[in-house]
Amino acid sequence: MGQSLKKFAPGSEENKMKDIVPIIEKRYTKHFGKGSSEPNLADFYGAVCETVEEINKTFGNTQFKVPSARAIREAYQTHHEHKKEPVTREEFQKILQEILITDSGFTGLGAKDTLVYIFGVPLAALFVKQKLFPRAVPNEVFIPGVTSATVFVLAKLNKI
């Protein structure tokens, strides 16, 4: 249970950015490695979207929104200094960090899912119980029991 507190702790975004750097470097090598020419904005946007998608796969519940084309264009123009040369590794990393921190950020879908499970499952179970066997177990015992079971299952599945 203590691991879930780390997810919501202040400074967790900075810790995640340290984990994102290897993913950014891998995608940079794939899209802008040796022998590649200067990409147009559509190619660059595709590379950014693939990078965001891979970050989402890696972190599971922690997901980033895909940045807007305007934000990518502005970050590209701000950080890409040598217009005639391909994007350097450092420029690509700075562009992605700016986009991920300022424009897209964390969506928190994992936290929303967890809250839906913690409150939705007991509520649904209560409705089913009231229709099938309303007096078999008192609600004062049934609701906390189902909530505890839900939290236990979510913890076993590493959702919280």
Topology:
Blueprint: H1 2-8, H2 12-32, H3 41-59, H4 69-79, H5 89-104, H6 109-132, H7 139-156
Describe the structure.
InterPro entries: DUF7874. The protein has seven helices and no strands. It is rod-shaped and about 75 Å long. The chain has two domains: 9-106, Recoverin, domain 1 (Orthogonal Bundle); 110-156, no CATH class. Helices cover 72% and strands 0% of the residues. It has helices at residues 2-8, 12-32, 41-59, 69-79, 89-104, 109-132, 139-156. The protein has 160 residues and is mostly helical. Helix 2 packs across helix 5, helix 4 packs antiparallel against helix 5 (89-104) and helix 6 runs antiparallel to helix 7. The termini are close together. The longest helix is centred in the last third of the chain and has 24 residues, at 109-132.
How is this structure best summarized?
This protein has 160 residues and is an all-alpha fold. Helix content is 72%, strand content 0%.
Q: How large is the radius of gyration?
A: 22 Å
Please give the count of helices. 7
**How much is the average pLDDT?**
76
Strand content: under 5%
Oligomer: single chain
Q: What is the fold-level CATH name, i.e. the topology of the largest domain?
A: Recoverin, domain 1
Q: Can you count the beta strands?
A: 0
Give short descriptive properties of this protein.
160 residues; mainly alpha; Recoverin, domain 1; 2 domains; rod-shaped
